[in-house]
Amino acid sequence: MHMSGTFTPGKPGDTPVKAGGAATPGRVESPAIPGAASQRTVKCFKCGADARDVARFCPRCHATLRYECPACKHEQRKGGSCEKCGVDFVKYIGAVVAAKRIEADQIHDRIERRTGIIKQVFLLPITGGLSLIKYIIKRTRH
Q1: Which among 4, 22, 51, 118 would be 20 to 30 A from 89, CA to CA?
Q2: Residue 137 belongs to domain spanning
Q3: In percent, how much of the chain has pLDDT > 70?
């Protein structure tokens, strides 16, 4: 009984035809997905393993394969200095760290001054205010 609109499987002797038109017995091939098999790869400079072009690290030895410029965010294969803006990575990071250290030292000094004043205010009943006066005089001289 054959109803219209239903699927009828092929006969045992039928061979499916792949996208190119040639018959391949026992195999049904789907059309190729564009770009699926054409992923570009690069060789790791350290161990020689193949890694995808977009990989940041080698899948075998974990060596860095892509570097990002800290100044302009340009991605490149070699470290050291940026191919686009010419910034030396080590010097740039050193300057950023030095600036952050100066900023952190200023914040630390400010916090230390505040805690010193609070400490002297708490000691006011014990010392009679003498230590607070010494602390203020000492701070105004600096």
Answers
A1: 51
A2: 103-141
A3: 73
Would you list the DSSP string of 43-63? E-TTT--EEETT-SB-TTT--
pLDDT at 107: 96
- Our count of domains for the chain comes to 2
CA distance 108 to 119: 16
- Ramachandran bin of 80, using left for φ above 0, alpha for ψ from -120 to 50, beta for the remaining angles: left
Tell me: the pLDDT tens digits for 62-111?
888 888 888 888 888 888 888 889 889 888 889 999 999 999 999 999 99
Residues 49 and 81 in one domain: yes
